[in-house]
Each structure stands twice: as structure tokens, then as C-alpha cells.
Amino acid sequence: MSDGTLLEVQEPGMVIVGRASAVLPSRFSKDEDGRRIAEHWRTISLMHIVQFSELDERVNGNSKRR
Which residues of the chain register pLDDT less than 70? Predict the structure, then answer.
């Protein structure tokens, strides 16, 4: 993110993308049928996304992110 925040997308389909923003769940729980539901999420502006990279890829010459 433009403020230096790193957000990990760990599963396909985890992000909902709109025209100018995206919603990323950050905390999940399970309902009574065992389905995962989002308890907490972040809505971010697409203008603030600086780059995409693989989780095990080196970013800016630093050690691997986890």
C-alpha cells in the first residue's frame, strides 16, 4: 500500500474488487454450518496499491515476506 502496509491475500476469491476500491477480509469465523464468514475486513482504494508480489518473493531486496 502507499503507506507501507502489506496485505496478504492467502486464498483465491478472497478479494472483492470494485471500480475504485477492493474489500479484503482479515479475520474469519465459522457459522453454525461450518462455512467461513468474514468478521473483519478492510476496504482499500485501488489508487493506494503499489505492487503485487508472491508471498515467498523478495520485496525491495529484503528477506522473504511471510
Answer: 57-66
**Under a CB-based contact definition with an 8 Å cutoff, are residues 41 and 26 in contact?**
yes
- 48 in helix, strand or coil? helix
Long-range contacts of 48-51 (CB under 8 A, 24+ apart): 48/1, 48/2, 48/3, 49/1, 49/2, 49/22, 50/1, 50/2
Nearest partner of 16 among 50, 55, 43, judged by Cα:
43
CA distance 28 to 47: 26
Cell output for 32: 453454525
